[in-house]
Amino acid sequence: MTNINKKLIKNIPSNPLIIAITGSAYGVHGWIRVFPFTENPISIFDYQPWFVKKTHQWGILILEKWQYHHQNIIMKVEGINDRNTAIEQLNYCQIIIEANQLPKLKEGEYYWKDLIGCQVINLNNNILGKVNSIMATGSNDVLVIKVNEKKKQKQTERLIPFLYQKVIKEINLPNRTIYVDWEIEF
């Protein structure tokens, strides 16, 4: 990590949030593919500094430039000037920011990171499981619930559409609970 870790990092993120992952190297001049997790892909560039963690060592990425290549984003990081170094230091790394950099949301809006891990309870007080992940489907997001019970030695999942006020009745982030109008048999 000597090339990207130019400064000794004293202030590693206290509340880290993964906003993208790097992919394979692009070309011979140290460019790398990047796959954002943000709703608008180029909004990852609004959040700086970027941190990476590789083999228990933190580094800071300083972006030189970026561009679209076909429908993907490629970027050039300061100190990475050839393909081999890009592969060695940046292949398939998580790009991390401090979560408090995210803008404050309006009432009724939530970041996915805040919903993951919440207990999901239906209107009959049946515990349906915990939010394991969230899928974007185009029409609406879908909560992927890890079910507490096991069926035939396999952990099962339940998919619940994130339709606020229709299916999602209440979100209580301090208590880490989401109340839904959803039957246990679904």
Question: Explain this structure to me?
Answer:
With 186 residues, the protein is mainly β. It folds into two domains: 16-101, Elongation Factor Tu (Ef-tu), domain 3; 112-180, Roll (SH3 type barrels). Helix content is 6%, strand content 47%. It is built from two helices and 13 strands, in the order E-E-E-E-E-E-H-E-H-E-E-E-E-E-E. Strand 3 and strand 4 (57-61) form a beta hairpin. The longest helix is centred in the middle third of the chain and has 8 residues, at 83-90. The chain is elongated. The chain starts with 15 loop residues before the first strand and ends in a 6-residue tail after the last strand.
Number of helices: 2
- What is the helical fraction, as a range of percent? under 10%
Q: Compute the separation of the termini in Å.
A: 48 Å
Strand percentage, roughly? over 45%
CATH topology of the largest domain: Elongation Factor Tu (Ef-tu), domain 3
Number of strands: 13
The CATH superfamily of the largest domain is RimM
Secondary-structure arrangement, i.e. CATH architecture of the largest domain: Beta Barrel
